[in-house]
Amino acid sequence: MKALWVSAHPDRGSLNCHLHQFGVRALHAEGWQVTESDLYAMDWDPVLREEGGADVETEQRKLADADLVVLQFPLWWYGMPAIMKGWIDRVFERGFAYDVMDPATGRARKYGDGGLVGRRALTIVTAGDRPGSLGPRGISGDIEDVLWPTLHGTLWYTGMSALRPHLITQARDVNASTIEGVERELADRLRSVADEEPIGFLPLDEEFYDHSIRLCEGVSPGLTGNAAHRFVT
C-alpha cells in the first residue's frame, strides 16, 4: 500500500507539523510506503502561470503511484492555505486529473470517475474553534459542507473516493497533557483508512442526474443542497 502525504503549514513547531510526522510514522507501522510533499519545506510555487514543469511532473508521479492521498492543513478562512490550493491548481492538470476522456462515449470522466480514480483521499484539518462550531448545527457549518469544494468538487470530481475529514478542533489549546489523545485518535483513524466507507457521493450517471446535471426527479426526495448529492441511507 502506497500513500502520498501532502502537508501545508509554515511553522515547523506547529501541531500540524507534529501530526504530519506522527501520521507518517503511524502509516509506516501499518505497512504503508509513504511519499511526502511538505509544501512549505519544498518552497512550492503555488502560482499557475503555464501548464507543466518538472516540479509538476514530479508531483504527478507521486499521485499516480499512490493508493491513498492525505491532504493535511490548517483551516484558514474556511479553506486550505493558498500554497496547497496552488499545488492542486498546478498538479491536477487537464488530461491528467480532469478532462480525461472516455473513449467509449467521447465525454469527460468526472464525479466518481476521472484521472485519479481508484485512490482514497483523506483530509486532516486543524481548526482553532470549538467542536460544535463545525458540526451540523454549528455557526461555521458542518465540516463536510465547509470542505465541499475540496471533498466533492476536487477529490470526487477527479475520481478519488473522499473519506470524511479528520478534524482536530481547539488546535491552539493542544498541549503536553492532551497531545496523546490527539495522537491516539489519528493513529486509530489511519489504522482503518484502507477499509473505511467513503462519503457516499452520487456518481454522474443518468440514473441520478439529467442532461442539465441537475438531480433527476425522485432522487433524494425532500433534500436540497449538498446533502441531496449523497446516497440516502
UniProtKB/TrEMBL annotation:
Domain Flavodoxin-like fold: 1-186
Family as reported in the entry's similarity comment: Belongs to the NAD(P)H dehydrogenase (quinone) family.
Keywords per UniProt: Oxidoreductase
Protein name per Swiss-Prot or TrEMBL: NAD(P)H-dependent oxidoreductase
Lyase is among the record's keywords: no
GO MF annotation: an example: NAD(P)H dehydrogenase (quinone) activity
Cellular component terms (Gene Ontology): cytosol
InterPro entries: Flavodoxin_fold (IPR003680), Flavoprotein-like_sf (IPR029039), NAD(P)H_dehydrogenase_qn (IPR051545)
